[in-house]
Amino acid sequence: MKKRALISVSNKEGIIEFAKGLHEAGVETVSTGGTLQALQEAGVPTIAVEQITGFPEILNGRVKTLHPFIHGGLLAKRDNEEHQNQLEENEISPIDYVIVNLYPFKQTLEKQGVTKEEIIENIDIGGPTMLRSAAKNYKDVAVVVDPSDYNQVLQAIKQDTLTVDQRQQLAAKVFRHTANYDALIARYFTEETGEDFPETYTITYEKAQTLRYGENPHQSAAFYKRSIPVKGSLATAEQLHGKELSYNNIQDANAALEILAEYTEPAAVAVKHMNPCGIGVAHTIDTAFQRAYDADPISIFGGIVACNQVIDQLTAEKLSKIFLEIVIAPGYTEEALALLTVKKNIRLLKLHVEPAEEVGHTFTSVNGGMLIQTKDNGRINPDELTIATTREPTEKELADLLFAWKAVKHVKSNAIVLAKEKRTVGVGAGQMNRIGAASIAIEQAAEHAQGAVMASDAFFPMPDTVEAAAKAGITAIIQPGGSKRDQDSIDVCNEYGIAMVYTGMRHFKH
Ligand SMILES: NC(=O)c1ncn([C@@H]2O[C@H](COP(=O)(O)O)[C@@H](O)[C@H]2O)c1NC=O
Asked: Which InterPro entries does this one have (predicted)?
């Protein structure tokens, strides 16, 4: 008996050649509406699915292949006598190959101005059903969901070399594909109904790149991107120059962009090991970068710099004087690009839109589970700050306090940031006690601590940090407030004439 292939594809790329090849290999092809038309127009003899089912396509294509004559032919085990007898009794012919790809649900979601009705209509029902039937019965049926597999499968069919292992691989791809497809649908419905943390959490990512290694060379890794691209994120940045990004590069570059999204004025952020080592804000991007550099000229070595303005020649000249792993910006002037691309080892990334703060969830894997929380998109309203001390901050101090508060949110806890004139001067990150973080920041700032402001990601459990700040010459402090012993810190501030404000919001980052 002739082998039979069922072809029903939305993405018709490469299907004519594949179907022609099947026909030449003596395989009979059966097809649905649009696919049938395309194959017949290309001169590939094909049977209409209605001819097999004896039933017309109904409900605008919502039902075309959902029929026992199709699914019986797909699910029957060839080595099961009962199955074979039932096929015979019911005059069902077996189907040996299934070539199906689905309604473009993802592409429809991404369309500008798309209606909910259009999205719903692009949920494929018959396609996944055929894919799943064929994949379940992979021992007897070969199923192809990915057009990039057409050629390889066709050659194997022609040479009669398609093994059960290969069919299982094709089936595995199908189940990944339908799981991804359903995950996108589930996410869409869940977002529509506004459930943040439903009883099961379904997410799907697509592989963008196999990485050379993970955080360390003995770890293996890959970079997966959101199925629906997130504009202004690292995942959608374009690499213009340099070697492939590494695992650590991606983490650091992402951290740099998250910090950058805090600032609306021209800003430059230098990152090392996911902490900012320098942040500068100014009227021009070259000055902003100069400030980020001056913040810590040692740590920036081998770091990542992200800017929210096009890199011009002046900035490029400054950038090219130091060793940097990555520069990220919304663009580069021709002169800047010429200057920077001379350096073989620098990676240059271009953002197509402003770095944007992603709404949604963050994930932290723990052994045996996953912690999921909404992103820390907390922003304070400067008008709602509480002044805790006798002295109010001056206008200039307030500007630096707000600048430092945006920075400290992105520093690992316990975090202290010292800032002066729109640049960080000291960063104390990831310490097990607050005074430890403050000591590091003060030591790093050295003489620049005099007249600087201090931001703390969480309240002061005791007055030691404020005492250290006073000794270093810090004049104003911003912190969440809320400690039982707040008054002790307030007293020290008042004694030294320090202005302290409370945000009422904590920014732990572990
Ligand atoms: N309802 C059905 O019985 C059904 N059977 C196949 N499809 C899909 O119809 C598409 C192909 O349609 P056409 O051949 O008419 O262009 C494929 O993406 C296939 O997955 C169906 N459509 C959606 O549910």
From this structure: AICAR_Tfase_dup_dom_sf, Cytidine_deaminase-like, MGS-like_dom, MGS-like_dom_sf, PurH-like
